[in-house]
Amino acid sequence: MFAPRAHRPRPLRFLVQATTFTVSLFVLAPLLVCAGLLPGRRFVAPLLRAWGRSMLAACGVRLVLEPGVAEEFAVPRRRVMTINHTSTLDIFVATAFWPVGATVVIKREFLFLPVLGQLAWAIDAVAIDRKNRSTAVAALAGAAERIRAENRTIIVAPEGTRSRTGELQPFKLGAFHLAAEADAPILPVVMHGNRELWPMGQTTCAPGTVTVRVLEEEAPPHAGDDLHARAEDLRAKYKKALDAMALEIPVTE
Question: Is residue 4 one of the residues assigned to a domain?
Fold first, then answer.
């Protein structure tokens, strides 16, 4: 079966997107490092948003924030924000609406990559070593303390890693443990269109529309809660929202 027309490799598109990403990343890195040195890191969110939106523009992607999304992320607030993770496009979309006072949980390996490691430091990312449970638990405990003490938003992809099929994977429990320890609500954010425009295995992003929807906030987990059941329930809410958005909202013209 042939790939959809919009997803067929196009050398010029690849060149434009790759060049824009590389150049913008080397411009962004020193700016973010400088912003990270300032009290409160108050310029980090505007810089990330500008970068994310410039990358979406280079990809020919129109970002639609549903009502309430922009207002939700305009002020710092204590919460764990979850996002679905099915595409290379996710990083550009997430940074394009980056909440004020937010940081993100990343794999520890990112810290040792050129440029990306500096960016991780600048946004005060929470680095998790998935191969070492004790250090991962300690990192999440530190993140929970930052949520409480600094009124932070911590962004987590509960699937853990990018889906190879584009379908939602089982949700891991890290976000729920983090929310429980920080006594912070969980805010589910759904990104629709990412996997259709830039599926796993494709070298370029097709033009189209990505829509971001915020679901109803969930109360912090408490002692005695069945976290596995809560993870399954949250995943079901994501699937229901994505299925509904697929029927309601066109991704490509």
Answer: no
Across the range 234-247, mean pLDDT stands at 96
Mean pLDDT, rounded, of the chain? 88
Phi, psi of 211 (to 5 degrees): -115, 135
pTM score, two decimals? 0.89
* Overall number of domains in the chain: 1
Distance CA 251, CA 143 (A): 35
The domain that holds 143 is classified in CATH as 3.40.1130
Mean pLDDT of 219-224: 90
Name, in order, each residue with C-beta under 8 angstroms of 24's C-beta and a sequence gap of 6 or more: 51, 54, 55
> Measuring CA to CA, how many Å separate 188 from each of 27, 53, 159, 175, 179?
31, 21, 13, 11, 12
In a domain? residue 1 = no
- Distance, CA of 213 to chain centre: 13
Domain of 145 in residue numbering reads as 9-248
- 253 within a domain of the structure (yes/no): no
Q: Is 50 exceeded by the pLDDT of residue 212? A: yes
The closest of 158, 166, 181 to 230, measured between CA atoms, is 158
